[in-house]
Amino acid sequence: MLSKIELLQEKGRKALAFREFWLHYDQATYVRDDLFEAFKKSKDQNKFLKLIWAFDTNWPGDPLEIAKICPDVCPIYGTPLDYGKGKNRVFNPLVDHDEGYFQPTIDHIKPRIAGGEDIVSNYIIVCRKFNTRKNDMEDRDELDLHYNGYIKTYFS
Length: 156
Prior knowledge:
The protein has one domain (4-155). The protein is built from seven helices and two strands. It is globular, with a radius of gyration of 17 Å. It has helices at 4-17, 27-30, 33-41, 45-55, 63-68, 128-134, 140-155, and strands spanning 104-108, 123-127. It is mainly alpha-helical.
């Protein structure tokens, strides 16, 4: 029997395998005209979606460098990440309550509160579901306390 995460991984792989690209310009999908034109000429449109996503993040740093660190799957849950914007999105948060497992977000490896900088080498791409769960935790001890308390309370 597959775990919830394994089922989500499979769900994501299947959904992304059947993505159909929107081949008409609109800003919500392609951010800029030049990105749309380059997307149409791209040999690997799935990979190019990472670049479009990076241009739309508004995080400090070169979008080309941000796109280079974009993994295909969340390093925490192993769920495939959907970098599509607008009409190229596969998962819809208004319809799919599991969408957060597939939506990429940028996080700091070393949090700003602990002196981490807003530079690409301090960024990691994880799914929104994980990022929001640990968002308010300031350090490793707090994260461990949260995790151990969760296990103790709900699974023992």
